Amino acid sequence: MILTAVIVIAILALIFIYASIRILREYERGVVFTLGRYTGTKGPGLFLLVPFMQQMVRVDLRVVVDEVPPQDVISRDNVSVKVSAVLYFRVVDPERAIIQVSNYLTATSQLAQTTLRWVLGKHDLDQMLAERDKLNADIQDVLDKQTEGWGIKVSTVELKRIDLDESMVRAIARQAEAERERRAKIINAEGEQQAAQKLVEAARILAAVPQAMQLRYLGTLFDIASERGSTIVFPFPIELVHAFGAMAPRS
After folding, report:
1. Nearest to residue 235, comparing CAs of 219, 211, 251?
2. At residue 79, what are phi and psi to the nearest 5 degrees?
């Protein structure tokens, strides 16, 4: 009889100890409640809880990667786009993450969706396409301030895709083509201007020394002859035209 009682007591003690033991990994923390009241945060490692009086909620401290589904956004210039993003965050205060919000994962994900639409709606389409780094920083800053009270740190927000309507894609393509044509015309005009300036400078230098003009003329003839052409064009001096014009009324 005594042996049976000892065995029963030993079994109950083992059950009690087994129910009391908790082991948390390095990246986990345990938020402990005693009779419903918060009494501390445990871990990592081995510790004991009082069965039926204390409960523990595990919290993972690793970075969580949350993919924000495509959101319909209307830009400041009234262009409708679909934007998706990736959110990186982690728990820095397990107590507030469990006590201050019922489900911090869902709450952070929903907040990211609304913040994405709100921040992007204040920018033009050109800014969305060209200033992604700035937009990522703005969204991350807004989210980090709002989730600070939940014990969550938002480390990074990255815009993943910006999908446009086909008509808008064609309009952007036409705009880019027109911009390239404008730049090509400006570059061509600047080249013509520089060439004209150099020609004027060369003409002033050659006009100062008539022998230089003659040497230039002979050099041009040499260049034409080196091309093995059958026809050579001799420029007619302008001075002879003026001389003939002056002699015509006298005759």
Report:
1. 219
2. -115, 130
- Nearest-angstrom CA–CA distance, 89 and 65: 7
Q: Is the pTM of this model over 0.70?
A: no
User: CA-to-CA distance for 96 and 149, rounded, in angstroms?
Assistant: 7
Count of all residues that appear for the chain in the document: 251
- 70 and 83 Cβ atoms separated by less than 8 Å: yes
Q: Considering only CA atoms, which of 71, 109, 86 is closest in space to residue 158? A: 86
Using alpha carbons, select from 88, 74, 68 the residue that is nearest to residue 160. 68
- What does the alpha-carbon distance between residue 20 and residue 52 come to, in Å, rounded to a whole number? 9
Among 118, 125, 116, smallest CA distance to 81 is for: 125
Q: What are the CA-CA distances from residue 76 to residues 64, 71, 120, 157, 169 (Å)?
A: 31, 15, 8, 21, 18
| Cβ within 8 Å of residue 58, ≥6 positions away | 24, 28, 29, 30
Amino acid letter, 137: A
CA 43 – CA 61 distance, rounded (Å) = 11
- Model pLDDT for residues 96-136, shown as the tens digit of each residue: 999 999 899 999 999 999 999 999 989 888 888 888 899 99
- pLDDT tens readout for residues 195-231: 889 888 887 877 777 777 677 777 776 776 666 666 6
Instruction: Give 149's DSSP letter.
Output: G
